[in-house]
């Protein structure tokens, strides 16, 4: 009987940096502390920070009522107008945007200023994508599937710059880029999917193909965990998506010989270890 845990499971660099930043501010900063949006997509982490006095600002309307303290920008980043609004209020800002996301902000701002049409491949409802879009000009579209490409007006004859949400499925990104290339002759493609995301997806697929059951751990709102689940589910019918050990019915694993475990980039190590240890017990 064997349990295989992915080496890439758990906090990525950007998430760890963001979470560490908030805890450092809790320990060193006086006055109220806020994060603009949940610092990462993990309810357990957000609850722990709230127990330590960190409040989550969930909308621009809520931001209007903040007059003092420290506002920490979430790992997913925010729109340029939010940054400008924070600076205008004279509030202390701590930017915990993932450096890889910040790089995309800089790219789309520069390419937009040079007159290019920006195509963002990603989920339009995800905060990271909303943030990226907020650093582009007016000529910008978000593409999640082939149907979205058909809605883009390529007749403007503008140069096109393609970027991606850092946690997008790498294979889907390549497929969409191939379709876009057939629509325009003047296109630059910047694969801004984080290397850690690609490695995590590749390892998860490899493990899922070799086990009887696969467990994917992560918050239900975590985009990269949702992608991991899709990838694992395609490779292993017995795939379970859980947030914590409480969501897992261990009886379902009683007849399997090998179990794989992976976790999203915003899943704390203690949750992964708890699941791993309890799965081992039943074997």
From TrEMBL:
EC number annotated for this UniProt entry:
1.17.7.4
Listed binding positions for [4Fe-4S] cluster are 12, 98, 194
**Which residues are noted in the entry as isopentenyl diphosphate-binding?**
41, 76, 126, 222-224, 266
* Cofactor(s) annotated in UniProt: [4Fe-4S] cluster
What reaction is this protein's catalytic activity?
Answer: dimethylallyl diphosphate + 2 oxidized [2Fe-2S]-[ferredoxin] + H2O = (2E)-4-hydroxy-3-methylbut-2-enyl diphosphate + 2 reduced [2Fe-2S]-[ferredoxin] + 2 H(+); isopentenyl diphosphate + 2 oxidized [2Fe-2S]-[ferredoxin] + H2O = (2E)-4-hydroxy-3-methylbut-2-enyl diphosphate + 2 reduced [2Fe-2S]-[ferredoxin] + 2 H(+)
Which of the seven top EC classes does this enzyme belong to?
oxidoreductase
Highest taxon, organism lineage = Bacteria
Q: Which residues are listed for dimethylallyl diphosphate binding in this entry?
A: 41, 76, 126, 222-224, 266
Q: Which CDD domains match?
A: lytB_ispH
**Pfam families named in the record:** LYTB
Recorded family membership: Belongs to the IspH family.
Known NCBIfam families for this protein? Answer: ispH_lytB, PRK01045.1-1
Known function: Catalyzes the conversion of 1-hydroxy-2-methyl-2-(E)-butenyl 4-diphosphate (HMBPP) into a mixture of isopentenyl diphosphate (IPP) and dimethylallyl diphosphate (DMAPP). Acts in the terminal step of the DOXP/MEP pathway for isoprenoid precursor biosynthesis.
Q: What is this protein called?
A: 4-hydroxy-3-methylbut-2-enyl diphosphate reductase
Q: Which organism is it from?
A: Candidatus Mediterraneibacter quadrami
Phylogenetic lineage: Bacteria, Bacillati, Bacillota, Clostridia, Lachnospirales
- Name of the gene: ispH
